[in-house]
Amino acid sequence: MENLRTPGPTPCPEPVLQAQTKQMINHRGAEFQNIMNGVTQDFKTLFQTKNDLFILTGAGTGGLEAAIVNLFSPDDKILSVSIGVFGDRWASIAQTFGADVTSLKFEMGEAADPDLLRKALQADPKIKAVLITHNETSAGVTNDVASLGRVAKEFDKLLVVDGISSLGSIDCPVDKWQIDVAVAGSQKGWMVPPGMTMLSVSEAAWKAHANAKMPRFYWDFSRAKKYLEKGQTPWTPAVSILYALNVSLKILLQEGLPNIFARHVRLGNMTRKGIKDMGLKLLVVDESYASNTVTAVWPPEGIDPDKLRKTLRDDFKLILSGGQGKLEGKIFRIGHLGYCSEKDIEDTLSAIKKSLPKHGYNPK
Amino acid sequence: MENLRTPGPTPCPEPVLQAQTKQMINHRGAEFQNIMNGVTQDFKTLFQTKNDLFILTGAGTGGLEAAIVNLFSPDDKILSVSIGVFGDRWASIAQTFGADVTSLKFEMGEAADPDLLRKALQADPKIKAVLITHNETSAGVTNDVASLGRVAKEFDKLLVVDGISSLGSIDCPVDKWQIDVAVAGSQKGWMVPPGMTMLSVSEAAWKAHANAKMPRFYWDFSRAKKYLEKGQTPWTPAVSILYALNVSLKILLQEGLPNIFARHVRLGNMTRKGIKDMGLKLLVVDESYASNTVTAVWPPEGIDPDKLRKTLRDDFKLILSGGQGKLEGKIFRIGHLGYCSEKDIEDTLSAIKKSLPKHGYNPK
User: Fold this and answer.
1) Domain B14-254 belongs in CATH node 3.40.50.150
2) Closest chain A residue to B233 measured between Cα atoms?
3) Which residues of A touch B194 (CB under 8 A)?
């Protein structure tokens, strides 16, 4: 068995994989309705929200697109707070659909600074919304959305959060933080194969939606809402992924959010300590912003991280991710979210430690 | 076990369901690349095309949206040929994204008339493309795309075909018929759960794409092409659905296209004969256009088709579909595509025959 330690897709527990073997059912029938309503309610609990919540068939990037096209009109001013590849991608989506995007960018490894966000909002009162990546998968950095969100709300802006690699793993209380739209993806902490994206929608988001003129059909929240009233989806959903969610969310609810978050804190701490103990450096600049779902690591000087990853795969069946964007070929990343135990991290660290000498570095 | 006879989702063979239990893998790794390239090649064979072919994560409606946003600019003139709910939906998508859509509509139950298509194209030389539903799932009618397509090509128009409920079940040779974009969905004849949509893209379609200004990001063909060159998808794909396709397409290739098409002809004939033998009427006006994947049936006068469906479900575990659009509550529909045998149709017909007396009709 491989030790899949990418930050998504993440491994799935066997009962979750098995759940997908249930035969297809009519997605306009009573049994489907029960499953759909149950999974939706479980997601609301795990998102810590009473807002509407939709489960749409598509990748997380589809969810990011859905958030944009449902809330905005062309030429709307949006402030994109980006600390990496996924923040940049979201800004590109908004620009593609005609938004007037101002980018507040930070170096990869840094977290967004609430004071700079305040200045950016002061500088342009026409900004309607702030896009924030909660956990930047490409950099292994978790933004302080509580503080950033408070700033956005001081100025009464819509707060739109990419929680794809945080929700269900790192505390992200949607209602308490007044997040208007939060986006998640099934293949992250939810321990389910990729294929579905989940979005919560606040009352303020619905008000924006009512006036939003960007073209939308497949991702349209209004159609999703109309069908969810019948326990359905407007288009044929990924039924087997929904079966998997119906099992995995029960496992997560059984563990309980405080325990889930605490487990991810332990896994994050353990990973970072192990990496530093070997003498390797973390990408994250200030460790108080280090992500508890993914760790980005600088290899020792002169070592090609992609060659190191090949050794780890060939010799230890350990699968890590490489760098993205301008860090491609420069770092490696370890996923420690969802179905992940201390044992998995021990194995991961041990494999890295044993492989480094092959590449000319003797870890401490 | 239920006898699921809806026209999608359709039942899946056990090995296909089981294929989904394979653990997740890195979607940027070598094993994924092999699967992705293999499934793509198998789809090309089954689409009977040498064109590019993309497998995107989403429902069939997402595929219909992808076809529009990748080919057109706002204000482009499009001729929509519609014979039912899915044809109308496609026209709505095109209008939503700003196309100038002319609708050539036919009553549900009728097939599109190539002569009327010729007149419509003569009437407006500015039309760039023709949208045609090959098999209209809401009406149980199969259009003569060979003839309709020839007319479109007489006028040198782009030919864009919704083959969601035909491809892989009813002969739809993409290259021979010069189809520029053909759209399919995993949950139909492919015998796989819903979650992926497949599109073939011709050289002429690529030329249109190069000038197409509708906003697109998630569904963008250029991004899909760039990543497919590495055996990847731009966004995390529905890995477990891909595992299922990797098994189901081999089963289909083993059976062979001529046998698959012949089986669907037999199932279609058997269904229609059984329905007529009971004294019930088909929705399709001219039986030479009857669909071999789905049959739409008028219930006997005075019988509520949705109540009949409830009896079939409660007494026989037979799941049929109801009417859509203006035929909601007026007809019922029997799916006979994909994983479906003569025995399944025998059981279906027998259950209908036994249930009708309960509703006051004694079948012949």
Assistant:
1) no
2) A59
3) 27, 57, 236-239
